Amino acid sequence: MDQRGEDLEDRLLDFATRVGKLVEALPETRLGRHIAGQLVRSGTSPAPNYAEACAAESKKDFVHKLGIALKELRESRTWVKLILKSEMLSDDRIKPLLDECIQLCNIIGKSVVTAKANLQNPK
Predict the structure, then answer these.
(1) pLDDT tens digits, 75-87
(2) Is the entire prediction scored with pTM above 0.85?
(3) What is the chain written as a DSSP string?
(4) Which domains does the chain have, with CATH numbers?
(5) Structure confidence by residue, pLDDT tens digits, 25-47
């Protein structure tokens, strides 16, 4: 894995850690527990899925596993937005995590597009 890949993996691991801390701060209400369960799954999944993509057995497998990481990030983004809209936690606690999630979606999304293009037009 090159330096950019390691940096991205570190960002995904940091994101997972931040999700874990956010989940612990959610209220112990029915909705809070539901969101916590969903977000802890989707928010901790992209890092290991990215690691799996980096060790993929083929280019097609790489695209597939990277796509899973993107889906999980998009799901996480939706759960974080729901926390924001339901005012469960303060905006200043949530917005930095939402911004990072959006950036990670953009990075992984661009990688998926590039990898798919490379599959269709091998050099």
Answers:
(1) 999 999 999 999 9
(2) yes
(3) --HHHHHHHHHHHHHHHHHHHHHHHS-SSHHHHHHHHHHHHHHHSHHHHHHHHHT-SSHHHHHHHHHHHHHHHHHHHHHHHHHHHTTSS-HHHHHHHHHHHHHHHHHHHHHHHHHHHHHHS--
(4) 3-120 (1.20.1440.60)
(5) 999 999 999 999 999 999 999 99
